[in-house]
Each structure stands twice: as structure tokens, then as C-alpha cells.
Specification:
With 381 residues, the protein is an all-alpha fold. The protein has helices at residues 18-50, 55-63, 69-79, 94-106, 108-135, 138-150, 163-178, 182-193, 203-211, 219-247, 252-257, 269-281, 285-288, 290-307, 310-323, 332-338, 341-349, 353-375. The chain has one domain (15-249, 264-375). The mean pLDDT is 90.
Length: 381
């Protein structure tokens, strides 16, 4: 089977129209929101009827769309980092800065939820156009848009989380660089760098694409390629430089994240995996759920390398690898969603009609289940 990378990325291709993308993505987007809001309602009913003793359940159910990291982003958007503990520094400022800007009109908290949900819709639409441009297959593009929207960890796309914005920007970077629009790729990558701690990983796939035909490219285009490669690291460095100037520790956002009560320091992935397996015997449901997902993600990485251009496979691989090198696998599935090529691999594997129908039933059910667990404090998103 021919893969998208076999043809020159500069070849004229049909990416469809934004109307085509909307027709494919809007139903998926609406379905995901209906499922997640139903899950929140169910979790609140559960908490009201059973009066759970665990304080975390009451807390997360009460916070709703601002549970877990959402509360941090809301506080940063409203008050900045100055009045918060240093733990807030692990949340990069891109998302709350957008929230503060739009919050002038609608309020900071409403703005964050609005940005996340609009970004989720745009990400699905842009993914449709990217897949159609790469493969010329509207059905494949539609599946990809749906899977991105209803994947089990995609409930965070409905919450006040930065993930939807980050995924949108990563897809935009790929779409731009594959079409050789290097300055647009640089702009999107720079914002990724200031939005997510792992945004710097985007430099690797951009480097792979930038090296292709570099020697014969015009001088201005070469400059654009170099800028695009460095954009995400420079975006991250801008934030880290501010942290270093105000807190005297350039790497504080990463060192805070590496504390034992969060993700812990760098660890052997095998020991991390074993720790997750042990969680099943200790009735830590959220921890044990990571194990099968990691196996699925590794398998999908292999599919990406086989069926998609090298830059897609490398990006998926480094994101998954970076997610398993700490002392626990908390948020693994959400981090995996950042590696959007995994969604493309799943879309590739569900071409058969029966398989497609099964997946379209399983994913919303799993989305509902994961959202209930997260809102109930039993799963760390």
C-alpha cells in the first residue's frame, strides 16, 4: 500500500473545503459534548445519592468542567502566577493567556471552556483536511475527525484544559509544514511551545520535514525552515526565561512536575509499567487502566511508522516515550491524544465496515466511562 509520504509534499492535492470539514466534524463534536455532559450529570447524581466519604469525589464533582488541572488554569488566567504556589508554574501560559484575553469580554472561566471547545472543533476540522490532503480519502478523513473527538481521553477537550488548543496547533503545524508553508508552521509551533511542556518535541518532526529538499530550496525558504524547526523550543524558552528571571530557576516548571507527588523523576519505563500493574491489585482503578492503553498506543505507533510519513511516526513515538519515563503513568491517555497520529493509525485500521461500526459504539461508551471516573475523582486525567 502506498503511504502519504511516497509522494512529494509539494504535490497539488485536494484537502476539501471547510464546509466538507464541518460536515464531518460537527456531528462528532456535538456527540462528544453530549456524552461528557451526561457523564458529569451522572457523576453528580452518584455523589448526591450515595454521599461518598472520599473528599476528592465531592471536590471533583463539584468543580465539574474545572476539575483537576482546570482549576489551576482558571486561577492562572484570573490571578497570574504571582499569587499562586510554585506548583502553578508547571502549567505553561499559552492557554490561560488566551483565556485572560477573551475573558475581558466573557469572564476568565467561561473563556477557558469556550477556547477549549472551539479549539476541539477546529482541531477535528483541520485534521479532516490534513488527512484528506495526505491520502485523498474523505471516508478516512471523516473517521479521523470522529476518533479525535470521541476518543476516551477526549473528555478533557470539553473541560478547561489546554489539550484541545495544543492538539489544534500541532495539527496546524503539520498541515502547514507538509504544504511547505514554513512561516505558518513556525507560528503554530511557537504557540505550542508556550502552551505545553512537551511542545518542544514538535521540533523533531519539523526537522525531518525541513531537511527534505533543504539543499535545493530558495534562501528565504531555508530561513523559514530553520525558524520552523526552532519555533517550539524558542516558545518554551520564552516562558522558561521569564521563570528564570522571576524565580531564579530556569527549569522550575519541569522540576516541579518531577516531584514525587506528581509525576516523579525520570524512571525506567519497565518499573513504571510494573507499578501500574500493581495498582490493579491495590484497587487503584485509574492506575491499572493505563496498562492496556500503553499496549494499544505502542501498537498504533508501529502502524503510524508503516502507513504514514516518517515525521508522523517520529512525533507519535517521542510523545508516547516521554509519557512513560516518569514514576507513574497518570494522564497517559491524555498525553497520548497529543500524539494525534495515533488517531490516524486507528482510522486506518477501521476501514472495514463492521470494525468501523464496532469502534463507533465502543469509543463513546469508553468516553462516558472515563469522564465519569475523572469527575468522580477515581481517574487522574
Amino acid at each position: 500500500m502506498a503511504v502519504a509520504g511516497d509522494a512529494s509534499p509539494t504535490t497539488a492535492r485536494d484537502s476539501g473545503t471547510w464546509k466538507d470539514a464541518a460536515i464531518a466534524a460537527v456531528p462528532a463534536w456535538l456527540t462528544a459534548r453530549a456524552v461528557v455532559l451526561a457523564a458529569l450529570g451522572f457523576a453528580r447524581y452518584f455523589a448526591d445519592e450515595l454521599h461518598p466519604a472520599r473528599e476528592v469525589v465531592v471536590h471533583t464533582v463539584g468543580d465539574g468542567l474545572f476539575a483537576w488541572d482546570g482549576a489551576w488554569y482558571a486561577d492562572i488566567a484570573s490571578h497570574g502566577y504571582g499569587g499562586l504556589s510554585r506548583d502553578a508554574l508547571r502549567f505553561f501560559p499559552g492557554f490561560p493567556l488566551f483565556g485572560r484575553a477573551i475573558g475581558i469580554v466573557v469572564g476568565d472561566r467561561v473563556a477557558l471552556v469556550l477556547i477549549a471547545n472551539v479549539a476541539a472543533l477546529l482541531a477535528a476540522m483541520l485534521l479532516y483536511r490534513l488527512v484528506r490532503w495526505e491520502r485523498g480519502d474523505p471516508a478516512l478523513a471523516t473517521r479521523a475527525a470522529w476518533f479525535l473527538s470521541i476518543a476516551p481521553p477526549a473528555f478533557v477537550f470539553v473541560m478547561a484544559y489546554s489539550d484541545a488548543l495544543a492538539v489544534l496547533l500541532v495539527i496546524a503545524t503539520f498541515f502547514a509544514m507538509r504544504r511547505r508553508s514554513w512561516w505558518w508552521a513556525a507560528a503554530a509551533a511557537a504557540v505550542v511551545g508556550v502552551t505545553r511542556p512537551t511542545g518542544v518535541l514538535l521540533a523533531l518532526p519539523v526537522l525531518i520535514e525541513a531537511c527534505r529538499g533543504f539543499s535545493v530550496a530558495p534562501v528565504r525558504e531555508r530561513i523559514g525552515r530553520v525558524v520552523a524547526v526552532t519555533a517550539a523550543p524558542l516558545g518554551a524558552l520564552a516562558y522558561l526565561g521569564w521563570v528564570g528571571a522571576t524565580r531564579d530557576d530556569l527549569l522550575l516548571p519541569y522540576s516541579v512536575q518531577a516531584t514525587h507527588r506528581l509525576h516523579g523523576e525520570f524512571a525506567n519505563p519497565l518499573s513504571t509499567l510494573w507499578h501500574a500493574v500493581e495498582g490493579l491489585s491495590d484497587h487503584h482503578v485509574g492506575t491499572a487502566l493505563h496498562v492496556p492503553w500503553l499496549a494499544v498506543m505502542v501498537a498504533l505507533v508501529v502502524v503510524v511508522f508503516v502507513r504514514w510519513p516518517l515525521s508522523y511516526g517520529v512525533f507519535a513515538a517521542v510523545v508516547v516515550a516521554s509519557s512513560v519515563t516518569s514514576t507513574n503513568l497518570d494522564s497517559l491517555e491524555r498525553y497520548g491524544l497529543f500524539a494525534f497520529p495515533l488517531v490516524l493509525a486507528l482510522a486506518d485500521l477501521t476501514e472495514h465496515r463492521l470494525v468501523e461500526r464496532i469502534v463507533f459504539v465502543v469509543l463513546p461508551v469508553a468516553l462516558f466511562g472515563y469522564a465519569v471516573l475523572a469527575f468522580s475523582g477515581l481517574y487522574v486525567p
